[in-house]
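Mods, move this if it's the wrong board.
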Amino acid sequence: MTRNSKQHILTNQTYLLMEKVIETANLKKAIERVENNKGSAGVDNMQVKELRPYLNEHWNRIKQELLEGTYKPSPVRRVQIPKPDGGVRELGIPTVLDRFIQQAIQQVLTPIFEPTFSSCSYGFRPGKSARQAVYKAQGYIKSGKRIVVDIDLERFFDNVNHDSLMMKVTRVISDKRIHRIIRRYLQAGVMLNGCCVTTEEGTPQGGPISPLLSNIMLNDLDHELTRRGHSFVRYADDCNIYVSSKRAGQRVYASVSKFIKERLKLKVNEKKSAVDYPSSRKFLGFSFTYCREIKLRIAPKTKVKFKERIRMLTRRSWGISMKERLEKLNAYLLGWSGYFGIAQARNVFRELDEWIRRRLRMCFLKQWKRCKTKLANLVSLGIDQKWAGRIAFSRKQYWRLSNTPQIKKALGLAYWQEQGLVSLVNRCKDKLTPTSL
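Not the wrong board. Structure tokens:
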């Protein structure tokens, strides 16, 4: 069955989708998802905990507006998030009510669009993950495709053409009420300094429906790359194409960039895009190294970002107890290792473990402050009185003292294991690449 025939069958089944959106089971699932995600308030300052009482009072009116196609979303609240490599990422925070409605719509549309998506698209899809995307890329490199065409879309979420996106939605969805509400969400505007600024292009990055719309927008790119026989991996707006030579890569880059500009009406960021070796590029926080086999490694920028975060959690001027500090540190380490634990970089994890322990030893020395307190605590840790005195009354900086052999032994690996500090080496075991994805 061809792609067009699949879409024709789907279109005939999508006339009464709004009725599915407002079904009790779908709404219950949507409100639970919004509550679990928590999140900030929108322009109306309504908190997540206020949503259920509000719906109990106003749902009949909202339901009628959805069925009649007259519901009008509120503008989004603009929030700027600093990027690790400089600049800011602009998020649009919808109101809690709009997040609830978007979530309900997204839950109905996702099963309809999923069959039309490419198997090489991994971002924001059920059963797909960033880990699978990285493994897929590693498989392409192992097969001999040692050059990557790394295409970066310039401000993708801000530059999406509304008409082009809606055309792709209407190709599959027949319910005009769904068309109308999606367009209204796209054009709801942004609240800036008390004024609502209309949006003629772009999709707000921050709403539950935005990831689905991004996949719909880039689905034509996926199918075009498949039609041309390219080996590629796409995760949201991050697309990597793997080829055998730089000459082939330059040709692919030129032709695909032209397709993106002319057919999708999007912009390619030529400064960030490149044709290069995978070991020189970053993909979803990872990179690759050439040894006897192609191995996953932590990208240099990822390591820098990790250290910046650890420095914040172990800064000496933060006046919290060591117990509270370890709780916050462990929460971050568990999340980070849960994602980056697939990297085959035990030496890097060991080095980071040692560096974290040194940061914590520095915090202890700072907290003890007075020389007599330092002396007493060092002796209680089993350090000889003579050496404890030299360290306690030393004029050297805390960072330098934290690396002395005596303190390293007293506050070493065994001590921090007893305190419950998460170890990256223990969490991040070398893992074999799956044979099937």
